[in-house]
Amino acid sequence: MKFEQHGFKTGNIVLPGIEFPVYLPEDFYFRDDGVVDNIYQHNKKVRQELESDGFILSDDPPIGREDIPFGKTTFAHRRNGFFKRNIQVGALMFVKRQSPEQDRFCIGHESMHIVDWLIQCGFSLEKPFLEMMKGMGFSLNPFTRNYNEEESLAHVGGLISAYKAGQGDRWKNSEIYEDLMASRIQK
Ligand SMILES: [Zn+2]
Asked: Theoretical Cys-Cys bridge with 98: which of 17, 65, 102, 169, CB 3.0 to 4.6 Å?
């Protein structure tokens, strides 16, 4: 109950940006705080809110700049925090407001980190994700060896998110973009 009281959801959720539906069983939670103006302040607020109620931040990556070494793109945004309470665990995400197009990309990027986290927790999400990509006309498999770096996988999430909003071409300077295009399914 505690997670629900703080706006976390379980059961059927949809990870934003990539619009990927996931079923979270008992003990797994997700909360999306969307786009925020100040990631430092928001992070502080979230930690105060949750830690004062007995939650423990189990993974606290450095806040602020997350440089993504693809093409010429660099983002400053906050990645996800994972909060624990007893055996329950919840992922909480928010991104720094930049421009609607960059925000869209970052939201997909962060959602993909959550997909990766859930896979590490034993969820079988690779197949449904590949099915979704196939439905979009792409046969690229981001879960293969070439993309086992977490940031590369997350970058694919950003591209998928941009594509779903018709903004895919904006990211054509990034290297995975070309791989994605090369994987286009001929009809
Ligand atoms: Zn990342």
From this structure: 102
**In the chain, what percentage of residues exceed pLDDT 90?**
44
Give residue 12 CA to ligand 1 midpoint distance, Å. 24
Summary mean pLDDT of the chain: 83
Let me know if residue 67 belongs to a domain.
yes
- Which value, in Å, is the radius of gyration of the alpha carbons in the chain? 16
Judge whether 187 lies within some domain: no
Q: Is residue 79 part of a domain?
A: yes
Listed residues: CB within 5 A of ion ligand 1: 154
Q: Which two tokens stand for residue 55?
A: 């939650």
Q: What is the Cα–Cα distance from 45 to 37, expressed in whole angstroms?
A: 13
Identify the residue with better confidence: 120 or 14: 14
Tally of domains in the chain = 1
CA 77 to centroid of ligand 1, rounded, Å: 9
Q: What is the largest CA-CA distance in the chain?
A: 55
